[in-house]
Amino acid sequence: MKPVKNTYDEILEAIDQALSKGDIQSALNLIDEELRLPYVPPFVEAKLKQFKEIALTAQKMNQEIHLDMSEEGILAYLKQDELHQLRALEAFSVMNMRSVIPLVQKAFDLIEKRLLKCLLCKLTIEQALTEAFTFSDEGLRYEFIPASLTLPDDSEGIQKAKAYLRRWLEDDDPSMLKLCLDQMELESLLKLPQTVDEDEAFDLAYQILETIFLMLSTHDRFEAFLIDKSIRKSGRLALFN
Are 125 and 151 in contact (CB under 8 A)? Predict the structure, then answer.
């Protein structure tokens, strides 16, 4: 027979391993089983209670982040605040949206924030849904068939706009280039379900360059940069204002 100390060491090790693997219920079962014994050495009891506190905290966190994938659960998310609506989009992103087309349209109806509507639009494009969807924003009504649209990153206009930014910034300021490309990703997302045409690429690249540059430097330096890179202003920048 092994010494009692080794037996307790093995029990504590088993609990520790269960917690490490995320098997919270098994850990709790082992802990409660030991705590029900008539006698538990004080040092072991203290460790068991510590483990139980960790396990219960982990269990609570798991319950809080549990994603309800049912239609009723997603609808409940959609009727709450923006954080809950993001949970609904998370659920859509890992399911077959073709099986819940009316719920997808309901999401467009309930979501108010433009960014969230565009994120949902992006999800429908990624799944190439063939049904028509509609949503309204700032007095405009959009109707689109996702399968007929191109993801922003795949559009020729965005690719061309990125090429302009790389030409202007890649050799001199990679950090600013990263900021500009991140901003372009946001701008192109917010434009959905519309896309950026090739003839709009320069204007979009210029606007983003100007916005980011002036956040980090002065107007005089921006003008000097334009001269150095032979960048000429376009008269159609208002399209993106």
Answer: yes
Q: pLDDT by residue (tens digit) across 45-81?
A: 888 998 898 888 777 666 555 677 899 999 999 999 9
What residue has token string 């002036």? 214
Q: Indicate whether this model's pTM tops 0.85.
A: no
Residue 2 pLDDT class (50, 70, 90 cuts): very low
Radius of gyration of the chain (CA): 27
Which helix (H) or strand (E) covers residue 58, if one does? helix 42-65
Which three-class secondary structure string do you get for the chain? CCCHHHHHHHHHHHHHHHHHCCCHHHHHHHHHHHHCCCCCCHHHHHHHHHHHHHHHHHHHHHHHHCCCCCHHHHHHHHCCCHHHHHHHHHHHHCCCHHHHHHHHHHHHHHCCCHHHHHHHHHHHHHCCCCCCEEEEECCEEEEECHHHCCCHHHCHHHHHHHHHHHHHHCCCCHHHHHHHHHHHHHHHHHCCCCCCCHHHHHHHHHHHHHHHHHHHCCHHHHHHHHHHCCCCCCCCHHHHC
Q: What percent of the chain has pLDDT over 90?
A: 58
